[in-house]
Amino acid sequence: MGATSSSLKTPASWHVLSYGVLLGSQFYQSFIGGTIAFKALSRPAFSQLQQNIFPVYFGLQTLLPIATILTTPGIHSFAEVFQYPSRLRTGGLLLTAVSSALNWFVIGPWTTGIMRERKVQETKDGKKYYDEGPKSEAMEKLNKRFGIAHGVSSLVNMVGLIGTVGYGLVIADRMVYRP
């Protein structure tokens, strides 16, 4: 236990741990947890779950890249992150933090607002947004707006994942493999 507890006192340990949690949570939410929940839950239950998960998820996806950057070996201040050559090494993480903050503070609330508008329209129409058959013109417009918002959010999330994977390649390039 001595070696383990002493290694937790170094920024390098926290760097690896924060990067691992970042990449693992992005991969899990994007490709495993969200997919399984969509298939297993009713639409209202899935919607409620996602509304509760996304603020926490995007918060972590904003803060974990910053923690990873601040514990990057060779970087001693946040100002150094923006200087050459550090910005080349940490650019992917900055991209992840910015894209996640955009989802957290802008796109997420936009999407949630559209969902609330759909709930009001469902009451007016006497029909759920996902029910079979023709929909009111207002609901068609809301569904289209939601599809756009969801697509933008998914795209921005994938940009962040690509930034995180890109940083993983930077880390791998700096490692020395000894067979």
Automatic annotation (TrEMBL):
InterPro entries: TMEM205-like, Xanthocillin_Biosynth-Assoc. The keyword Transmembrane helix applies. Pfam families: DUF4149. GO terms for cellular component: membrane. It is found in: Membrane. The chain crosses the membrane at residues 16-41, 53-72, 92-111, 148-172. Keywords: Membrane, Transmembrane, Transmembrane helix. Residues 17-119 form the TMEM205-like domain. It comes from the Eukaryota. The keyword Transmembrane applies. PANTHER family: LATE EMBRYOGENESIS ABUNDANT PLANTS LEA-RELATED, LD23009P. This is TMEM205-like domain-containing protein. The lineage of its organism: Eukaryota, Fungi, Dikarya, Ascomycota, Pezizomycotina.
